Amino acid sequence: MKQNKTQTIRTEYTDTFGGDANYSWVQRASFEVTDNAPESAIIRRAKKGHGLNGMPCRKVDLGGLIALYPRNSCTVLFVEI
C-alpha cells in the first residue's frame, strides 16, 4: 500500500504596528498536511487554527511564506508553506 508523504505547516499569528509584524504577542502552531494538499486547504486550516475562519483576509505571497492580513484587524497570520 502506498503511503502519502506529509509536510509540516508552521504558522505565526501576531499583532501589527504600522502594517508590519510587531510581535508584542504571538501565537504559534503547526499541523501536518499531505504533500499534494492545495494551498487553499492549507490556508483554511491555518485560519481555523487561529480562530480566523470566515474572516476575509488580504493575502500576500512572499515565496514559501504567505502573509494573511485580516480585514479591520491590526494582525497578521504567517503561513510557512
Task: Please characterize this protein's 3D structure.
- The protein is mainly beta and 81 residues long.
- The chain has one domain.
- It has one helix and five strands.
- A five-stranded antiparallel sheet has the order 2-1-5-4-3, with helices on one face.
- The longest helix is centred in the middle third of the chain and has 11 residues, at 39-49.
- It starts with 5 loop residues before the first strand and ends with a strand.
Low-confidence stretches: none
Principal-axis shape: elongated
Mean pLDDT rating: 95
- Main β-sheet description: 5 strands, antiparallel
The computed structural class is mainly beta
Number of helices: 1
Condensed summary:
This protein has 1 helix and 5 strands; from the N terminus they run ββαβββ.
Furnish the topology, listing elements before pairings:
Blueprint: E1 6-17, E2 20-34, H1 39-49, E3 57-61, E4 65-70, E5 75-80
